[in-house]
Design goal:
Strand 3 and strand 4 form a beta hairpin. The chain is 43% helix and 17% strand. The chain contains 18 helices and 15 strands. The longest helix has 18 residues. The chain folds into 3 domains: 152 residues, Nitrogenase molybdenum iron protein domain (Rossmann fold, 3-Layer(aba) Sandwich), CATH 3.40.50.1980; 203 residues, Rossmann fold, CATH 3.40.50.1980; 32 residues, no CATH class. It is of the alpha/beta class.
Length: 444
């Protein structure tokens, strides 16, 4: 849902945006698909170098560097790095009543959904003894809360609830300081979930502080949460020192639609994921009818022209909102797997069956009554999703994201004897003589 902010494209000069419609197997279709795929592999070296320099400075100079960059980038030098819990509670009370209701209900649904997740523990008895898998929660997790173009109380819920469900003992949040103070909606979400360790710091410097620690901030085991290009680059750079959820990319949706779908609803759902304002969003519609493609393209153009977010839509590159025409449902779903989108909507008469044929998608929304916005805010599934085609191998944020496995083995004397021939043979084949001797010595 919230995504990393990347480079802004130049504004499109046309007063009305034209939506490309192309046969998938045509030269134009292949070119558009290549542009969509290639655009997701773009990293800014200058941003990475800047983030690396900031990380190095914070790692060496701690709070002093953190304060320096906070003043430089946010124009604020807070009197105290940590926001007092009492201040969070005061700010929380200022949240609009209807937003409080929405946050409470979404938190309840998230807890219900995530209570069914988690890695399994098991024990296997063997002739040699027993082997077990133990599951333990991470001890300390850092949450990055963006504070730029908009604020995201929903992301506080999406990141914290699965961590708490996993049993994480300490959850700390960082967020860029705001001249008007902590956003009331964010404060309410933090207060509702009992998150009291919150620091006024943002950008790559906050990521560095979470990863390496400062005089004030104790380092964490994992960093989660969306941010701008510098935050994404910093998370990528500190991975290995700590774990991260993912490197968040621009938001993306693929919609497979047939004649049963309402063209205006398809258009609105495409624009719902294209309106994040990073300049690199991807919204693709796949149909098997040129007539339907033309109707949807017209509907998208009409909605853009009437939209308060028109300026953002006009800045998107030409391929960002594209309609592909395929020859069959099988070809449509094969294209879905090729793109491996963050969000996949199946607005077809056979949506339930179609879903079973999809291998690569982070989240699937079945039927015309299930727009992605429900997953972003309400139904209980997590909106922290792999982007950029990483749904080929990555999963949504969940309880498992905050757990680790421990292998446990207990071998009997009988089991040790059964290993006497096998282990030394393997070890010596790999030139590890003391591996072999450590087993053989126990049989003497």
């Amino acid at each position: 849902m919230p995504t990393a902010t990347t480079r802004r494209r130049g504004a499109v000069s046309a007063r009305s945006r034209s939506i490309p419609v192309a046969d998938l197997n045509s030269r134009e279709g292949k070119s558009l698909l290549k542009k969509i795929i290639d655009a997701r592999d773009c990293f800014d070296d200058a941003v990475s170098k800047a983030a690396a320099a900031i990380i190095s400075d914070v790692r060496e100079n701690g709070d002093e560097a953190l304060a320096k960059y906070t003043k430089r980038f946010d124009g604020v030098r807070p009197a105290k790095l940590r926001i007092p819990p009492a201040e969070i509670a005061v700010r929380a009370r200022r949240a609009p009543p209807e937003l409080k209701i929405a946050i409470r209900e979404t938190a309840r649904r998230l807890r219900q959904y995530h209570s069914c997740q988690g890695m399994p523990m098991f024990k296997i008895n063997t002739p040699d003894g027993e082997i077990r898998q133990a599951v333990r929660p991470l001890n300390r997790v850092g949450l990055y809360i963006p504070g730029g173009r908009t604020v995201y109380p929903s992301s506080v819920l999406m990141n914290v609830v699965p961590a708490q469900s996993a049993g994480v003992k300490e959850i700390v949040a960082v967020t860029p300081p705001q001249k008007d103070g902590l956003d009331a909606g964010v404060a309410f979400a933090l207060n509702l979930l009992g998150i009291t360790e919150v620091y006024q710091a943002g950008g790559a410097q906050a990521v560095a502080a979470l990863a390496y620690g400062t005089e004030t901030i104790t380092p964490v085991d994992k960093i989660v949460g969306p941010g701008n290009a510098y935050v994404a680059a910093a998370k990528r750079l500190v991975y290995g020192k700590v774990d991260i959820d993912c490197v968040a990319g621009p938001s993306e949706v693929v919609i497979v639609a047939d004649k049963s779908a309402d063209s205006r609803l398809v258009a609105l759902d495409l624009l719902a994921q294209a309106e994040h304002g990073t300049g690199d969003e991807i919204a693709v519609c796949i149909v098997e009818s040129k007539i339907l493609a033309a109707k949807i393209a017209a509907a998208v153009t009409k909605e853009i022209n009437a939209s308060p977010s028109k300026a953002d839509f006009m800045k998107l590159p030409p391929h960002a909102i594209t309609i592909f025409v395929t020859t069959s449902r099988a070809e449509s779903l094969e294209l879905c797997d090729t793109i491996a989108p963050e969000h996949l909507q199946l607005m077809t008469e056979t949506a339930n069956d179609d879903a079973w044929h999809v291998a690569n998608a982070a989240a699937i929304f079945i039927g015309s009554d299930t727009p992605t916005a429900l997953g972003d805010y309400f139904i209980g599934t997590n909106h922290v999703l792999p982007t950029g085609g990483t749904a080929r191998f990555a999963s949504p944020l969940g309880v498992e994201s905050f757990q680790k496995r421990i292998s446990i083995a207990k071998v009997s004397l009988k089991g040790l004897k059964s290993a006497m021939d096998i282990v030394p043979t393997f070890a010596r084949a790999e030139a590890f003589h003391h591996h072999a001797l450590s087993v053989e010595a126990r049989g003497e």
